Amino acid sequence: MSGRLKRGSDMFRDSIDALEAKLGLERRTFLKFCAAMAATMGLPKGAEAQIAQAISTPAKRPSVIWLHFQECTGCTESLLRAEHPTIEKLILEIISLDYHESLFAAAGHQAEAARYAAMAANKGKYVLVVEGAIPVKDGGIYCKIGGKTALDILKECAADAAAIIAIGSCASWGGMPSTPPNPTGASPVNAIIKDKPVVTIPGCPPNPYNFLSTVVHYLTFGSLPKIDAEGRPLFAYSRLIHENCERRAHYDAGRFAMEFGDEGHRKGYCLYKLGCKGPETYANCPSILFGDVGSGSWPVGTGHPCFGCTEKGVGFYKPIHQLADVKNVVPPASYPRVVEEQGVGATLGSAALVAAVAGLAAGAGYKVAGNLGKNSSGSDKDSAE
Q: What's the pTM value of the predicted model, to 2 decimals?
């Protein structure tokens, strides 16, 4: 990265001091945030300094145009209600949020004018964020804004965007609006925009740090992070929830909750047999958690099975009682007991039974031995000779 500030230099310290004053954020907290971002994205050592520099000394805040279509605004709510004390300030101070219907003070033609102004001033450089599915049936008439269909607005904004991020399950793979019979033809962004990559951040709602890390990656390196076949960033969606689940040890030992509220459920046993979709859902929920309130702050941690909201064809499609299609180790029909029962010594009855069996066996052996060498008449063979 050209022009990089060396960590520990006066210029680097000055830039951090300026950010501290700007955001009301302590230096240590900010640097810890940058280190956590680097670790979350699996970046090499030293990347945290690049992130700190990119955030503290941006050449120009990147313009962001945020569209809403068929959705519940839960993704925006999740982002704004995150417990981390810095996320809202970072998002609002680091980027230039030039169009967002839910957060805008303006409305009507003034809001639409702001969108066109931002698109013209930042042609080919703005980041387009899409929240919600796009109805395509009957020409897209089921969602209109300012007299234009969602389909036309998406194509119009995507044409000159530098990067496109689909946030939430609805924008990523259709989500709840696309469930059968899907009367509006609700579709994800990447089913409509085919000429440029679309990064998807699925989840209902998505974890705000997965979105923030994607934005920080773009700010730091000028490119979007590596993605999987579904367009999801690998740093957040490359591992099954089941692999890092805090209840995984119970799964391996065969300890399952069989009903909500039973003894196994109260003891924190595995929720697989209650329909948990963690074994077939890729996401970092058990690692990154939600709300910055500590361990257990995610659905499985609070006793509810994962319903697979980050996985196309699982969340909103498979009923909660249906068992997951396990991707790695299928549990056997039975397990050995964790603690095998130990013997307590022979009882009087069992000793007598063993003695009786042994006596019968000895007697039978003696009888067989005695019969050896006798002819069919019962006389001794040697004596007869």
A: 0.77
